Amino acid sequence: MPTHVTIIGAGLGGLVLARVLHVHGLPVTVYEAEPSATSRHQGGMLDIHEENGQPALAAAGLSEPFRRLVLEGREAMRILDPDGTVLVDQPDAAGGGRPEVQRGELRGLLIDSLPEGTVRWGHKVAGVRALGGGRHEVTFADGSTVTTSLLVGADGAWSRVRPLLSDATPTYSGVSFVETYLEDGDTRHPAAAAAG
Question: Could you tell me which residues come within 8 angstroms of residue 19 by beta carbon, excluding any fewer than 6 positions away?
């Protein structure tokens, strides 16, 4: 009987791994702190690169459904100087190496590709401890526990699993990224639309 895999975190990494394991007939459960798949906005756009993201989706058997999520024309790039002079203007190359998709739509595709009940929502991890012999106990915020012989931490920057392997912690690099959207840009913000 194959070893049951326990994944902490239903982000894209944890869900892709769960799907690949499922495709290969390996039992898997994903525990996620969020109460449901729709409880929080999942962010904006993602480039899915041909050298890493696309092979992962192929291994998950999801290349065709992924292609239906691709937003055409999003690989175009324009760089302007502070005065609005166009410095770089690269049109979208259909079928390029880094098509863009909405993060939430890709996450939905991955969730829908897994058997019902694979993702256990509302399971916030409070702690993880090694039991010896390769087994681990995961304790959730509600006091419940699960014991597993194969544990994967896909739970983000403040991972509860990472301390089992490393004492590294996230630090602020001094660089921030801000993404904004101008709804109805052509009519409400014509000057910005003309520059973009």
Answer: 60, 61, 62, 110, 113, 114
What's the pLDDT score for residue 168?
A: 92
Alpha-carbon gap, residue 170 to 108, rounded angstroms: 28
Give me 11's structure tokens.
């982000």
- Please count the CA atoms within 13 angstroms of the CA of 154 that sit on its side-chain side: 21
Partners of 31 in the β-ladder = 8, 120
What pLDDT does 148 receive? 97
27 contact partners, CB below 8 Å, separation of at least 6: 2, 3, 4, 5, 21
Residue given tokens 């490393």 in the structure block: 166
Q: How far apart are CA 42 and CA 36, in angstroms?
A: 12
pTM of the model: 0.81
User: By the 8 A CB rule, do 147 and 136 touch?
Assistant: yes
Under the banding of pLDDT at 50, 70 and 90, the label for residue 192 is: confident
Identify the CA nearest to 126 among candidates 105, 109, 111, 145.
145
